[in-house]
Amino acid sequence: MDQVKIGRFLKELRSARGLTQEQAAEQLHVSARTVSRWETGSNMPDIATLVELAEFFDVSIPEIIDGERKSEKMDPKEKERLLMVADYSESERSLLMQRVLLISSLGLIALLIGFVLLFVSFGMESTGPLHKCMEGTCFGFAGGALITCILFASGVLSGIRNSGGARRLAHIVGVVSAIVTVACIAVCLMLTIHNQQ
Predict the structure, then answer these.
(1) Which of 14, 43, 112, 148 has most Cβ atoms within 10 angstroms of its Cβ?
(2) What is the pLDDT of residues 91-125, one digit of tens each?
(3) What is the 3-state secondary structure (H, E, C) of 54-118?
(4) CB 53 within 8 A of CB 45
(5) Domain 3-74 belongs to what topology?
(6) b or e along 83-100 (b: 16 or more beta carbons within 10 Å of the residue's beta carbon)?
(7) Is 70 exceeded by the pLDDT of residue 11?
(8) Above 70 in pLDDT, residue 8?
């Protein structure tokens, strides 16, 4: 797919209608900068926008992707299928963003709790193992949330999810994480009880 060729084609279609980038952007409900990026080939419209562009310029999506006019028009069934794909893509992106927001919010809360526990321990000569465990757990959870958000944003997690056996791997990692967490808490509780005797 030649993005520069696609950009030139989109510019030709816009110019043929006698529209400026600002006018086209207004009618397509995007910014003029977005239209400029499409036309220079530095960025591509998403699938939902491709459907809108095809309808707006009265061309088919294959014509846009090929960067040249052909004789065929977009079939209504093809348009419907592409709109369904666009809706699915948008719902997937929305779900992903909700998960990232939840994970980052929990990580921020854990970080704040960790700093509160750290601040409280400054006034004490020594803190018990349970206090240190809780402090370490909060900072560890915050770090894990940050790493998870980075993996989400970079697409690594979606690549793992789309590979074979990913659900089984995720289940195993979840079970092992839960066992390690419970074991750490149990050890800290035993150490706290032992130190108090």
Answers:
(1) 14
(2) 777 777 888 888 889 889 988 998 888 888 877 77
(3) HHHHCCCHHHHHHCCCCCCCCCHHHHHHHHHHHHHHHHHHHHHHHHHHHHHHHHHHHHHHHHHHH
(4) yes
(5) 434 Repressor (Amino-terminal Domain) (1.10.260)
(6) eeebeeeeeeeeeeeeee
(7) yes
(8) yes
pLDDT per position as a tens digit, 135-190? 888 888 888 888 877 777 776 665 555 555 556 666 666 677 677 777 767 776 67
Residue type for 136, please? Answer: G
Domain ranges of the chain: 3-74, 103-196
> pLDDT tens-digit profile of 119-144?
888 777 777 777 777 888 888 888 88
Q: Which amino acid is at 41?
A: G
Which tokens is 81 given?
């299928």
Distance between CA atoms of residues 107 and 95, nearest Å: 18
Cα separation, 39 vs 28, whole angstroms: 14
